[in-house]
Amino acid sequence: MAYDIANHFCEMAANYHTDTPHILDYSKYPGVMESDRVGQLLEDIEKYAFASHLVWGLWGVIFDHVNNIGFDYIDYARQIFQQYHLLKPLLLNC
């Protein structure tokens, strides 16, 4: 996971919408001064993980009815929804 985030930060040095997309500008790489933004990013990731649990839980319920490949979609959805319900009070303060 750290590799993926580091790779994303490295990609921030590129601007693929110019005539010289191969020229990298590492001044755009997030540095120590960006630590507040990284903290905000981590908070945002938790919120989107919450949304992801809802989407994939519903996906499991739907695919249980439309697919027959020997995958226990309902058990998968149950686990996803359990995580959703664990996160809900933490993220929504309820």
How is this structure best described in words?
By secondary structure, this protein is mainly alpha-helical. Helices cover 66% and strands 0% of the residues. The chain has 3 helices and no strands. Helix 2 packs antiparallel against helix 3.
Helix fraction bin: 55-70%
> If helices are DSSP runs of H or I spanning 4 or more residues, what is the number of helices?
3
Query: Structural class per helix/strand content?
Result: mainly alpha
Radius of gyration: 19 Å
Mean pLDDT: 85
- Tell me how many strands there are: 0
Main sheet properties = none
Which runs of at least 5 residues are low in confidence (pLDDT < 50)? none
Query: Which of globular, elongated, flat, extended, rod-shaped describes the shape?
Result: elongated
Note the main attributes of this structure.
single chain, 94 residues, mainly alpha, 3 helices, elongated
Write the layout of secondary structure elements.
Blueprint: H1 2-11, H2 35-66, H3 73-92
What's this, in brief?
By secondary structure, the protein is an all-alpha fold. The chain is built from 3 helices and no strands. The mean pLDDT is 85.
